[in-house]
Amino acid sequence: MPTAIPAALSDEQIAHRICPLCEACCGLEVRHRNGQVVSIRGHEQDVFSRGYICPKGASLKDLHEDPDRLRTPLIKRDGQFVQATWDEAFAEIERRLPRIKAAQGNDAIGIAIGNPSAHKIGLMLNFPRLLKALGTGNFFSASTLDQMPKQLQAGLMFGNWLSIPVPDIERTDFMLLIGGNPMVSNGSMWTGPDVRGKAKALRERGGKLVVIDPRRSETAAVANAHHFIRPGADVYLLLAMVHTLFDENLVKLGSAAPHLQGLAEVKAATAAYSAEAMAPRCGIESVTLRELARELAQAKRAVVYGRIGTCTQSFGTLNSWLIELLNVLTGNLDQPGGAMFAKSATFAANTAGPSGVGKGVSTGRRKSRVSGAPEVMGELPMNCLAEEIETPGVGQIKAMITIAANPVLSAPNGARISRALESLDFMLSLDIYVNETTRHADVILPGLSPLEEMHFDVPFPQFGYRNAVRVSQPVFIPDADHPHEWKTMLRLVGLLQGKGANVDVLASDAELFEGEVRKTLGEDAEQAIAATRHLRGPARFVELSLRTGPYGDKFGRDAEGLTLTKVSDTPGGIDLGALKPRLPEVLRTPSGKVELAPPQLLQDLKRVDIELAKPQVADGPTSMQIIGRRQVRSGNSWMHNLPVLAKGPFRCTALVHPEDAQRLGLTDGGLAQFSAQGQIIQAQIQISDEVMSGVVSLPHGWGHDLPGARQQLAAQRPGANLNALLSDRVWDPLSGNAVLSGGAITVTALNGSN
């Protein structure tokens, strides 16, 4: 059992941590005694979350103590996992992985990385090094399952993949929220703890919250107004609103006007999409569509926010673009109370180098071997993973590395992915569980408990509702023979570089860091290297980024500036202030302007025209559309193995409207069969008018009944895998993002349900 860092273990002590389990990044107060967690609560003095905590934060104790969490490497021998030492595991990797690379080329090794890695600084900062050492073009991530349209839109409009404006909710008067549920997620690509409290404050000061969603979500339930919309029809709603702003002379650009390019092209491109023409497609009356546009334009301070529901559609990138156009055209981009850019203390490309101009982004530098899907941000669509393993030829994936990823549950057609993984010559997983994906691995290298590692958020401060900086030191010391994840990553890098399985990790860390600093800092490099030489691993990166960042001490030139020591000495973090206007400084486009009319997006409107030309066909008597949903006691698939989250009523239920239930012969608590794409699942019915008629809502991340997985608690109530019904042949052609919302399914009552 690990021991607590302080020497006096017999006394209860308090450590302050940043929660690593969702994007809210709340500050936690961890009480511990004798190496054991006593309790976890919100940290009242945290400058960012101000004491807020959700059930996921409290579950860190369960995660730390989970008997199913791996503590030692596993090697598969004769089809069974056996425990191994780290040296044995790396010897097995060295014996098998490099020979595949040497014999069949770099692309013979694929790599997939999942969402939990975004909270693990050792993985985040060393993943680019591993990818470079592999040299593969077969790179997949969870981004193409939930957010790539947003990143592509930001890149095309603002010049950087992560320059994503977020709602300034504490100062807005009117918020239109589409396809998101921040009461549960606490923001998604918008880091904002306690959205419920912030929404309450919005209403108390006379503001208004309006939600558009096929389900009356937890957020919609506290809104001033909620409008049902047909799944997958957001593009018609958004086009109608943009058209209305031009049609009724409501466009006002505000202070962003000098920094915009392409307004005339946008007006011309959207001229055909009137509210009257779009209303039948989205299921919202034209008078409502026009009124929404008027309210948005007439509010003193307003913002439009759309998230996963708008991204996981075939028009995901168009949706993201149109949402941002609404903020621009109503004068709410880069304004207090509108959609604003955070200014992170570290690791943000839009605070580095020359401001106001840059190279912009490019896509399609290569295409996937089988389907020809374009690369975006260096990645191929996760939907292409199985076919790239199955299809023979030059570049066929013969080995896989997965890092905190579970695509068998999180991606469409997981059964196909599972079969493909089983056919590999070799598979390596970095993960803390034997789950539905890692059960196929030949070697699993476990990470540490989050309480045993330093925590510093890399991406999320770039989406913060407020600017702040915080760092967490380990609560417990891990076992001496269990390396930190950054060391595991660097050992893999060295192995792939041909340095063997026993590379000197510390020497490699110094060599790589110093080489990268000399490449990026030029004449300032030697000072930075000397000033950070006392640090190792991620801490050295953080120190460098803090000190050279927008709030840094510039290595002593600004005595008030930030250093790692200064941030570490402030347990509640350092408040860097409310969001401020950043145009044009934030831009990295070649023109130095906000590009309102990227050619790829204007061209993609032709797909909308094709869909509009198709007649609307009435659904069959058993045909429905399926959507997912978020739950506060769930996040990623492994969270169903944590007692504090798993307790209570069964949550993997299919929400069905009472009218549909009566028509289909379904009963509350009964079972039904759902079929699509030749796949069949069964789920428990929950009759509720919170979902619109014709729609079924099933939460994601379930399906823990596959043989070989080792999550005992999750397996007791496995639930049904929503994604098993979804096609892996359909994605947004611009971003490659999977279509996870609005798929057609057939519903049949089972015996005992009627």
Structure description:
- Helix content is 32%, strand content 16%.
- Among the domains are: 74-137 and 381-445, Rossmann fold, CATH 3.40.50.740; 148-354 and 583-603, 3-Layer(aba) Sandwich (Dimethylsulfoxide Reductase, domain 2); 617-749, Barwin-like endoglucanases (Beta Barrel).
- The protein is globular, with a radius of gyration of 25 Å.
- It has 27 helices and 28 strands.
- The protein has 754 residues and is an alpha/beta fold.
- The strands form eight sheets. The chain has a seven-stranded mixed β-sheet with strand order 6-5-18-17-16-7-8. A six-stranded mixed barrel has the order 23-27-24-26-25-28.
In a nutshell, what does this entry contain?
This protein has 754 residues and is of the alpha/beta class. The relative contact order is 0.16.
CATH domain class of one domain? Alpha Beta
Structural class: alpha/beta
CATH architecture of one domain: 3-Layer(aba) Sandwich
Shape call: globular
Features:
754 residues; alpha/beta; Rossmann fold; Dimethylsulfoxide Reductase, domain 2; Barwin-like endoglucanases; seven-stranded mixed beta sheet; six-stranded mixed β-barrel; 28 strands; globular; disordered N terminus
Could you outline the blueprint of secondary structure elements for this entry?
Blueprint: E1 3-4, E2 13-18, E3 27-33, E4 36-42, H1 55-58, H2 60-65, E5 74-77, E6 80-83, H3 86-104, E7 109-113, H4 121-134, E8 139-141, H5 143-146, H6 148-158, E9 166-167, E10 174-178, H7 182-185, H8 195-204, E11 208-212, H9 218-221, E12 225-227, H10 234-247, E13 260-261, H11 263-269, H12 275-282, H13 286-298, E14 302-306, H14 308-311, H15 316-329, E15 339-340, H16 385-390, E16 399-403, H17 407-410, H18 414-422, E17 426-430, E18 443-445, E19 467-469, E20 476-477, H19 485-496, H20 505-521, H21 525-532, H22 537-548, H23 564-568, E21 574-577, E22 594-595, H24 599-613, E23 623-627, H25 643-646, E24 653-656, H26 658-664, E25 671-676, E26 679-687, E27 695-697, H27 712-716, E28 743-749
Parallel strand pairs: 7-8, 7-16, 10-11, 10-14, 11-12, 13-22, 16-17, 17-18, 23-27, 24-26
Antiparallel strand pairs: 1-20, 2-3, 3-4, 5-6, 5-18, 9-15, 19-21, 23-28, 24-27, 25-26, 25-28
Helix pairs in contact: 4-19, 6-15, 10-12, 10-13, 10-15, 12-13, 19-20, 20-21
